[in-house]
Amino acid sequence: MSEPSRASIRYLSCGRIIEATNFEPTATLLDHLRLTRGLTGTKEGCGEGDCGACTVALGRLVDGRIVYRPVNACILLLGQVDGADVVTVEDLSEGGQLHPVQAAMVAHHGSQCGFCTPGIVMSLFTLYQAGEEVGRDDVLSQLSGNLCRCTGYRPIVEAGLEACGSRPDHKPADAFAARAAETAAKLAALDDGTDVFIGSRDRFFAAPASVDALASLYAAHADATIVAGATDVGLWVTKQLRDLPKIIHVGRVAGFNAVAIDDTGVTLGAGATFADSRAAVAAIDPDLDEVWRRIGSEQVRASGTVGGNIANGSPIGDSPPALIALGATVTLRQGSATRSIPLEDYFLAYGKQDRRPGEFVAAVRVPKLHSDQLFRAYKIAKRYDQDISAVMAAFRFTVDTGFIREARIAFGGMAATPKRAAGAEKALVGASLADPGSWGMALDALAKDYQPIDDMRASAAYRRDTGRALLEKALIELAGETTTATRVAGFREASDERVA
User: Above 50 in pLDDT, residue 488?
Assistant: First the structure.
């Protein structure tokens, strides 16, 4: 670690600086709020980031402006809130005055037993603070990570629309808007650029401030657990009850969350969250935007990172198949050395990745589509929102005059790792999008490319049949798209001739 460092974390709460020292590396924000600070409005429901009862808001400076995002306090580690404005439901009503979101919930009878209500209010609070015009779909998406068993969602959605749906200049200013400048100044002062190290060499929570400090610390403690958003690691703590004595949090590493767009692609720092990277990947293709939108909930997307989704090597991670199909590469760093490899080569076997001791995922590079390339991605899950994939499929075809010149096909949930369909790819070369009869060999080849398993999410037979159906669906859709584009081009050419 670089010098100087501090042995505490600091965050804002109602304008006050709260300092925490000598806590366990895996202490959660939920336990800190309820057991240490006595803020019991934040509830523990599922303990795994699904129900949203524990939702609180974290405010951080983004380009000089405070951005509030919802997070699941049950799986967020306490050390992760360093430098943030932590807002709980107790903070919303001041001087007996309800926040506009709370007032709307009361007016629309959006609560019965009330257990889930604080989390719902906090999710809507972050939507309110965004200061944007929102519609019904925006409210539904915002609430996708909040479950209510007794009220029913209609009055809750109506409350959200009333409080958050008006034009920004029609929203009443709340206390947070009134003191935004003061809060921003305090947040800027908290960002001291020093490394955080709490504990001993054998048991610690660390949050380095630079990538060099991260590389040095991880090289010295290759047995440590790297944490970005904790959307997976948090469950290791709360559900698997693992003891993780060494935690290295990458959320404070300067530039580690950078998102850079250039003429040929997008580079995502490993610490870029799904929320922060969505606009950049959406510019590549609308299907990629939809994949990002359906990863977890708003709470999960605000915390979970693209690098973390890759690094943990899950065979059912949503982003790797799509990124593999696009030809993404991953950059790894060990000490001062870096190397880049195709993303598909990173996954070696179940639970095993091409990552050396002390080496970490630093960035992922996603190429843009060329003018002759077509892309499709599909997620199949039991629930439309906030569910893990049973099958995740992604396809990129390079097409020349209606014939497939190259195919990249990747699936998640079909093997022990996210994996390309080598046989189907080869069989599709030369196939005509206009001739479904030329697709047969590729569709049959999928059965040899993958040997899926039976588990709680789907049977092996379902996965095989679904994989085949999704490949055929992609080809049918793209055949129609190509035909339409050809017709439009022909119409324009004929029009130009008439004009001439």
Answer: no
